[in-house]
Request: fold
Amino acid sequence: MSDAAMTSEPHDETAPASSAMPDTAMPAGDRAIVPADSIAGRALVAVIAIMTFLAALTLGAVVLIRAAASEWQSDVEREVTIQIKPVSGRNIDADVSKAADIATGLAGVAGVRPYSRAESARLLEPWLGTGLTLDDLPVPRLIVVRIATDATPDLAALAKALTDQIPGASLDDHRGWIDRMRAMGRTAVAIGLGLLVLVLAATTLSVTFATGGAMAANRAIIEVLHFVGAKDAFIAAQFQRHFLLLGLKGGVIGGVAAMLLFLLAGLFGDWFKGTAGEEQVSALFGSFALGPEGYGAIVGLIALIAAVTAGTSRVTVYRTLGSIE
Amino acid sequence: MVRFENVGLRYGLGPEVLRDLSFRVDPHSFQFLTGPSGAGKTSLLRLLYLSLKPTRGLITLFGHDVAMLSPDALATLRRRVGIVFQDFRLLDHMSTYENVALPLRVLGREEASYRDEVMELLHWVGLGERMWARPPVLSGGEKQRAAIARAVIARPQLLLADEPTGNVDPVLARRLLRLFIELNKSGTSVVIATHDIALMDLLDARRLVLHEGRMHIYE
Reply:
């Protein structure tokens, strides 16, 4: 206003006494158009942090169960058993030794362990009691064949060689067990994924509604920006940036808390290594180590939640602008 | 500058609150918009600042048919219009200075480029010592002046004020009127919506009188 000096300044006699005093507070420069800190904003961060924590725990649990299921399956797959049934007129010990030689000669076999007579007797102790003489019973003998990691030996050829050369020999590749394990593993992972989808849906909905609630407090800002000539994209960008930061803040708090929990669980697992309890738990769930895949998934979850928060604020801005015009 | 031709407005399926309005607001003009409560002053102002679309008729603003414009084009037009709301609509989390500077920030200007301009205007409206105070601690009159300063900082071609003297005493009302006259002298067209007859009697200006949704113009 170049002609400002020509005009006398209006003076407000109704102003409170304090208004007569100059304000000494200095400007903060370009203060954020959307208030950086508000009760609604803090509540939103808390909701996001809690929901991210729960979703990250579910996600981590699914990753662990998936890894454990695959471990159960590969453990069973890494062993096959040769069974030698007694056949009259044949020396079973010689047949066991011959079968062990055939198995050892197969590519991809890491080790062969024939069960001795005494060991076979011990296997039957729970049912038949001690002091058993196997000579009196036609008890089959077992040979456990360990398969090398990542190897795929030709088990069909082994089965054929055994049945051709040793009458009464058969190969059990645990197909039935593997099928059951596979079904169980798949079921466990499917249940986990189902839960994860539900938790993610609940998280997305909670974050969406909480963001909508926090945005309601900002309607006045949207209206003022609109009436001073701000374009819709400018207004949306202000809120999107602000709510992206809120989403990241809440997501990082919840996600990092879940990561720390998994790290601590892994450490406790190491401390109790060798105890009966730890063996049971690790047999079922493997180790609690999430691995890069699990931690990466949690980081992805944090990014997803921040994006949902920012996206919701953007949609709300456009909806509010639509209702103003 | 502004042209209304047979403009009608109704809310939803209700009766028409504004009927067959035809008038112009010329460049550099000064007019009061008046009428009894419920006559449609605020609705007409909302049409003028593009917050409502008419049910029928034609509105042109700065030569543009507003019904044909995109949201971005409407935002660009709004930058040429300053609005003083009856309830001020200042943002409580910002200082008076920041509130007044908001239209310039929206234009994408850097703070260094407008700082002196905003400070000068705040001194001009008598808020030189209150520029860092936030609206909740300002008096009614101070808020009113801050709202006026925000409306004129970007040098609008048209200023719309809704009951700008509704919250102040007669002495301050006269001073605010003088402020609007000064703005008008500097080239801004002014439309003041008021039902304060004493205020209107202070100035021999055009009167747009709304009564039961129809307009009577007294030049």
Remarks:
- Chain A touches chain B through 44 residues (CB under 8 Å).
